[in-house]
Design goal:
By secondary structure, the protein is α+β, with helices and mostly antiparallel strands. It has one domain (3-135): Nuclear Transport Factor 2, Chain: A. It is 25% helix and 41% strand. The protein has 3 helices and 5 strands. It has helices spanning 3-27, 30-34, 61-68, and strands at residues 37-44, 71-87, 90-103, 110-123, 126-135. It has a 5-stranded mixed sheet with strand order 1-5-4-3-2, with helices on one face. β2 (71-87) and β3 form a beta hairpin. The longest helix has 25 residues, at 3-27.
């Protein structure tokens, strides 16, 4: 593949990584969820602690499996209008993300939106996630409540 063809194909290849990531969540498949990440990826997800890595509970397959077990049915993740920016072997994606799931034993599901940014590198011809950052805005009215009721 020429450099021009690779640059043109990159956004579609990167969006395919995110599509697979979402499909892995829906299937509750931890191996597929973690497959696109490099081993030492830096992750700032919604779950504590402030930074997650291989040594933190939700950064491990066991921790992810325990989290998935807290839901009945699929955990749906939807990336809304992701914007892909590439430069050679490096790419960034920013998007609004919706998660929908049903807590174990609950009658109904919940759904909320948050912000996501992914950093990727092309390694041996494959786009891999090297950095992930998720955040939820909070109300700046003194309550510091997470603003999980916002819609795009």
């Amino acid at each position: 593949m020429t450099a021009i063809a690779a640059k043109t194909a990159a956004p579609a290849e990167i969006l395919a990584v995110l599509d697979e990531h979402a499909a892995a969540h829906a299937a509750r498949d931890v191996q597929r969820m973690t497959a696109p990440y490099i081993d030492d990826a830096t992750c700032y997800t919604l779950a504590p602690p402030l930074q997650q890595g291989p040594e933190t509970p939700y950064g491990t397959p066991d921790g992810l499996q325990k989290w998935l077990a807290s839901f009945d049915g699929p955990v749906l993740v939807d990336y809304h209008n992701p914007v892909v920016t590439t430069d050679g072997e490096v790419a960034f994606v920013h998007t609004l993300t919706r998660m929908t799931a049903t807590p174990a034993g609950a009658i109904g599901s919940f759904s909320f939106w948050f912000r996501s940014t992914f950093g990727l590198r092309r390694i041996d011809g494959t786009w891999r996630i090297t950095h992930r950052h998720e955040s939820t805005p909070f109300y700046m009215d003194g309550s510091f409540r997470a603003a999980t009721d916002l819609l795009p």
